[in-house]
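S1.2 Input.
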Amino acid sequence: MMSTIKEYVSTSESPLTIFKFKNLNLNDENMAIERKEFKDFLIELSLIAQHIENKAFTLFEAGNQAFPAALSSFAIVSTGFNLDREDRRKDQKEICPFMNRYDPWTMTMQSKDTFLKTVENNDNVISCYCKVCAENPTVPINDFIEYNRQAKEHYLLCREQEMNEITTAIEKQDALMGFEKLQRSALKNLTEIIPR
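S1.3 Output.
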């Protein structure tokens, strides 16, 4: 399939090619072969972009791959995490009104229980330096509306900081900045897809 995509991309007259890989999670331990193929794919896209004038690539719904994809071959990367997806699954009998919360250190979503355990282990203080956490260092555990508001704002601020880090890495042409960040996170398997 990848050879078909590569052939299409290199022969297409369109200046912009949009990719969307539905539910792709290359961080999964069992996806080693797919990570290697994705890395080869990124290298191929980079070569095409270098040899064909006015050629750009976009990746929609990049999910966990947003950070490494933005550091490599894609001019535009979009991602969206549904903060409360895990709490809204149909197979759960009871729906939790509290949404998941983004953990900037692991770069993954945490359930309310996991988040509260992390806060409890930190002397009941949120260990985050974003504006919303600095202004609200304790968790509103009995007010799901305020909890969810803070979780959304926290998520946006953290993702904005990550996007700024990507921009800095691109400006400095230093993919190692992203590599080191991923290596410290729960997404460390994704370091394998960053062309170096």
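S1.4 Remarks. The chain has two domains: 2-81+174-193, 86-158.
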